[in-house]
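Possible regression after last week's pipeline update?

I re-ran a chain I had predicted before the update to compare outputs. Posting the input and the new output here so someone can diff against the archived version. Not blocking, just want to make sure nothing changed silently.
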Amino acid sequence: MESYITMNFDKNTAEVGQIIKATVKINKITNFSGYQVNIKYDPTVLQAVNPKTGVAYTNSSLPTSGELLVNEDYGPIVQGVHKISEGILNLSRSYTALDVYRASESPEETGTVAVVGFKALQKKATTVVFEHSVTMPNGIIGTTLFNWYGNRITSGYSVIQPGEINSE
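New output (post-update):
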């Protein structure tokens, strides 16, 4: 199985007012310690929301945690710097106590890193995708991954985009 980052939806169709959960996952990323992703969506069709509460995202909302990068012993930090009016979410989470993490000899390499909700504002075909950003000039299709030495992973993984929502 190959190394990749992807985003999966819990459903591909939604009526107005329904929430689609988008789960960002990694697979076989060696010695993974952090990520930054830039996600683009149409804000006239979808509204970014907390997937558990349905509360609308603001420009600094934090993503819901996944199963990786949550061990408090490794000093996780999480950030959200968005442009909601433009339909851009920029999410990141990483470990900061990398020496402690490496010493554990238990790298986190496969699993969920974040969950975001998208509430349908219109029932119209649309996409939610990883997209290149000037704030991440060395990213790979809107993604940047880091290893437990704090180095950017520059190759060896693919970016798998999700399918269309409400396609006819």
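Follow-up from reviewer: compared with the archived run. Residues 66 and 130 are 18 Å apart (CA to CA). Marking as no regression found.
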